[in-house]
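Hi D.,

Good news: the full-assembly prediction came through. Inputs first.
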Amino acid sequence: MIEEIRAKAADLLRSGEVKCFIGYERASDGLTARPFFAYSADEADRLIFDGTCVHNLARYLPDMRGKRVGILAKPCDSRSINVLIREGQVEREEVYIVGVVCDGVYRTTWGKPSRELQPRCLYCSKRTPVVYDYLVGQPPPAPESQHPASISEVEALERKPAAERWEFWRSHFARCIRCNACRQICPACYCPQCFSDQLDPLWTGIRIGLPQNWVWNVGRALHLAGRCIDCEECQRACPMGIPLAILNRKLASRVKELFGFEAGMDPRAPFPFATFEKEEEIL
Amino acid sequence: MPSGSDPFLPLLAEISEVRDLTPDIKLFKLNLREGRIDYRPGQFAIISAFGVGEAPFTFASLPEEGLEFAIRKMGTVTSALHDLGPGDLVGIRGPYGNAFPLEEYKGKDIIIIGGGIGIAPLRPLIHWFIKRKGDYGDLLIIYGARTPRDFAFSHEFEDWARGARLELAIDPPGAPEWKGRVALVPAVVKELKPSPRGSIAITCGPPIMIHYVIQELKALGFSPGQIVTTLEAKMKCGMGKCMRCNVGNKYVCKDGPVFTVEQISQLLEEF
Amino acid sequence: MKFLSNGNLRGWLESLMGMGSLIAPVDLEPGLTLFSQVRDPGEVNLEYEITPIPPKDLFFPSSEALFRFSPSRGYEIPRIEGETFLLGVHPCDALGIRLMDFPFLSPPADPRYEERRRRTTIIGLGCVKARPECFCTSFGIGPLDPSNADAFLVPVPGGFLVEAKTGKGARALASAKLKEASIPIPKPPEVSAIDVEAVRKVALSLFDSPYWGRLADRCLSCKVCAYVCPSCYCFDIRDYPTRDGAERVRSWDSCQSPLFTRQASGYDPRQTKASRLRNRFYHKFSYFPDEFGAFGCTGCGRCVRYCPVNIDIRETLSAILRGEARIA
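Then the structure:
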């Protein structure tokens, strides 16, 4: 698999089809992975792919606008690419997508890889990317979902009384240091000016405190409803261990219930929150 | 509350007068409620619009003329200040930064080159040089703006022209009432060819203007030590602590804002 | 050195809690330890590996009101009261506090920082294990180095070797039941050092290297590296309106933020990720040492561990030592 990815990336770079190929290389711990930008066929030899390749590389595509790039895409990453294309942030013809069949990725932090699947992989229904120009790996026979999740964290939390749920989020948001890692790593957070940086009106301002953190985290989750593809990168990046994916997953499930919509699956499907139908039902 | 004990606490000042200088630049005259601020031309203060925030502004007057600031409406703080009038309260702390070494310029011909709001730090110099004509050589003022209405301090131009050679220019063209020069400031420098011999050129304006003015002056034979400018930067503290205004290993707030081009050429980063 | 047995730890901590507030490493979630106000001595975890946030926020809070102002009442300045015992500070973090003193205590000193420093006793804790990201020995300290603390504990079987380094530290230890120590100081764990003086000598020659652009490719422009750093101190100041005036708030910020140097006119001298990444590096290893005579880094390795895309400052240091423009 790795050899095929390296060879394909090297071909794309050698032929000039792409200026840069975004994939993964081994991280400085020698154990986990990190994003890697290869600019020559020689550099393509540094590419790797395994269960530590957790990063959603689609996040880098808006940075590369105007340049033709190649990108390695897991199924989740491919859904993000679809969202970015649909939202006009990425031109389909500027990106050469090398899709990779994925068996799930592991919970990793630097220096500490594990063999435990990330929670999102338990909920993921795709093993084959939804969009690609070239596919690495054999697509499995349908149905693709291989890890039937037991009770989800969302359901577990919902079973608790309101006061406990309130305390759960209060204690997590109180810790938030507003480092913006969740936002900066998110493929769907590409606004040139985020509401949290806006001064007029002042939504949160710079203050790091419970009310501002609450508005920030909930505000961000709402902006991601119908757009988040559950790559869980925000949660992984959070140095303070805030379980942001629970919020995103809850909103995604409501969007699915109400609109039958799943972000990034179909690049032509209308967006629930950017579509107005004259006869639509009032919720 | 004296500013000395807590460097973040501004002195309170009342706005005594507001004058429209251009459609988007106002001159604010301030009266301190308590304490005093001793400054030299080239230094700056940090002014508060309470409830909105603080921003740095260069002193636009000589100390003996009272505290005056020319403020262009740009962001949130300047917009809030523009909404204030006589009697309103603002905060002011400073002075910060270095100053123009006016003693060193004695006996030299002075060329002042300003663009837009960049005239603000140059105005006290103009007043200084005109008042102390005997101590300095010839004074040439080149001042450019986008339209005739965008010249700040046009009410003082007669005084300036009496004490100096004043050359005005606008760009872009398109003001039928304008009978003067239509040119960008660097082009005016090129056209007037001030002599570098025994001269000091002091320039302030948008960064892009400064870059090209420096280029033209160098082409005329000015050495980097003869060209002086005052830099702008985003600032929060004014005391070299917040790390917002460093250009490489220099702070605009502490080591500047006045730099010679010789000093700028040693900066690691672009300003 | 004296010996404090595990059995006598609780009693000592209780007496510290009686004298002031005790801040120490507390486990808040599985895998998450933070310096927190201790409510029960049993919460204190002196075997902790690392806290994502160093104890810098005790002196330089993530957000604080500098003052409130109203035209009728004038200024109101939040009071700083009480005494604090900061326990369990590893040598790297104690150095971090020392480094933070440079900008905040140099004239004009920040009275808030000064007051908190004056009211706090730092009780250091030796490291019996090193983490893979540690490189503290590059900065003249080591896993069992007591400098920069008022009192210092070294974990040994059955308890701690303890030592007061200052009068404040002696006062904090006065209530501890100590015995004469018969145990030798253990051998510190191995921590590899980088020759940062050599880096500093050659660093400026790589200022314009394409290295920074390549490294910046994967940088996210988040502020994790700065917020977890014991010696990063960039801040922002802004107002929040109140009913009849203002509250002026100072908060952590970082030169890694894309908006950090953008002027009101829209002009931004540091527009690229590469220039921002470079600024953080040179501030620590060139500008800060020029200004204060010490490196702006403690070798704690937090930025290495918590960067979501593994921008590893040790790789940058090595790359500069090798004089390579190649991305490591």
